[in-house]
Amino acid sequence: MEQTLKPRTLDDATRGWINGLIGVVIFSGSLPATRLAVLEFDPVFLTVARAAIAGVLALALLMLLRQPRPTRAQVMPLIVVSLGVVVGFPLLTALALQYVTSAHSIVFIGMLPLATAVFGVLRGGERPRPVFWLFSVLGCLMVVGFALSQGLAASPQGDLLMLLAVVVCGLGYAEGARLSRALGGWQVICWALLVSLPVMLVLTWYLAPSTFAGISLPAWVSLGYVSLFSMLIGFVFWYRGLAQGGIAAVGQLQLLQPFFGLALAAGLLGEQVSPGMLGVTVGVILCVAGARRWAR
After folding, report:
1. Which InterPro entries match (predicted)?
2. 31, 112, 124, 198 - which has most CB atoms within 10 Å?
3. Helix segments in 208-256, DSSP class H
């Protein structure tokens, strides 16, 4: 008698890493796209417009699929997610990209895994092993060392804004991942977008330029990318991955984001990628292997 072989299924940890990687690839295009957009859009208008566009799409999804409303206890965490990833990170990075190139700012993203892991402990109750922190801190120090070697005096505003963006984004990631365990990944980002939608719509109308006649196609495409992919689709995979594989562990995949982002900055924007940038990127990527090994 022939035996029926059961199909092999992936465990939650593996699915989490796959979903997280897809999210990172999508997010890698955010800073280059933002850099293109702020050349023609005001950074504050860009922030509220992308949130408003994504919020309208989120509202449509929630209504179409008839999702139950969050509980009263989940409202405040959703506000934290909204302030962190819907408003805070997009606004701070858009402001920073007025002073620094996207290639320079992308390297700061190498600090996000450490920030996410810290908030994963504080908000998610995770407890990675001590060796995990060694690799995470090492990757973070590489990024900070690179920024110092470039001379912070050249653009202290841009670097400070990027550091603040990393902190608020790490908090938003961890809080959203914690909520995803109960609400689901795409539901969390949709509800977070909906929380800020009324204010974002009003600000979009108020801050809109008098005419859009001079806006080029690349700027419009960039606005579309950061609205649809960076604000919505990317988070569907990212929050699902963090919830499945662990906030601290899967969060280390963000160390790969500078690599993808630098390639996009060089290929699409023609920005110069220095040997120092490449060296730091390779260094932080190597840290992900050790961090993943000792995450649990």
Report:
1. AA-Vitamin_Transporters (IPR050638), EamA_dom (IPR000620), EmrE-like (IPR037185)
2. 31
3. 217-225, 234-245, 247-251
Radius of gyration of the chain (CA): 19
Residue entry with tokens 């600000």: 203
- Number of helices and strands (H, E) in the chain? 15, 0
Dig out the tokens for 93 from the structure. Answer: 């990075």
Domain of residue 190 covers 12-207+217-293
> Which residue type does 146 have?
F
As a whole number of angstroms, the distance between CA 110 and CA 221 comes to 26
CA distances 177 to 16, 81, 123, 170, 173, Å, are 11, 10, 10, 11, 6
CA distance 155 to 250: 32
> Position of tokens 């790490």?
170
Say whether pTM exceeds 0.90. Answer: no
State pLDDT tens for residues 37-91.
Answer: 988 999 889 989 999 999 999 999 999 999 989 999 999 999 999 999 999 988 8
Q: 239 in a domain, yes or no?
A: yes
Token readout for 199 is 């204010």
Side chain identity at 69, as an amino acid letter? R
Residue 212 within a domain: no
Question: How many domains does the chain contain in total?
Answer: 1
Instruction: Note whether 257 and 27 are within 8 A (CB).
Output: yes
DSSP letter for 214, please: T
Could you tell me if residue 189 is inside a domain? yes
